[in-house]
Amino acid sequence: MLDKKYIGFLKELKSLKSSAANLLKSDSGEEFEDRKCHEIIGYIKEEMENALSEMELLSKAILEGKLVLNSQGRFNLDTAQELYFTCGSPIEILIDGEWYRGRVESDGSDYYFYNYESENQPLEEGMKARIRVDRG
Hints:
The chain has 136 residues and is an alpha+beta fold. It is built from 2 helices and 8 strands; from the N terminus they run ααββββββββ. An 8-stranded antiparallel beta sheet has the order 3-2-1-8-4-5-6-7, with no helix packed on it. The longest helix is centred in the first third of the chain and has 27 residues, at 32-58.
């Protein structure tokens, strides 16, 4: 769960991104300095959008459990039997006490964890995993 201070910053970041978008709608001006500032604000706005996307993902509710293999040969969480993973499904896996984000992939015979931050790992029953879901 995201700490309140980050939730507050997320709100401020949304407001700042909106201000940047409004500023970018206006003409950049003819002066060199104004055009350069317009470019810089455009770059900052893109970075804010990336940061907002990441922070909004991190603010979602977490559904955690252990991986189990279902009768169709797909993995799901033991805490959510109705949700199963296919290629491309976003997932977080606990490896050596640290959570890593990635997605489920297949090599044609087995599923593995495509790790965005480190080495890929074969998926195995009993691995601690979690997904992020919309609150509601």
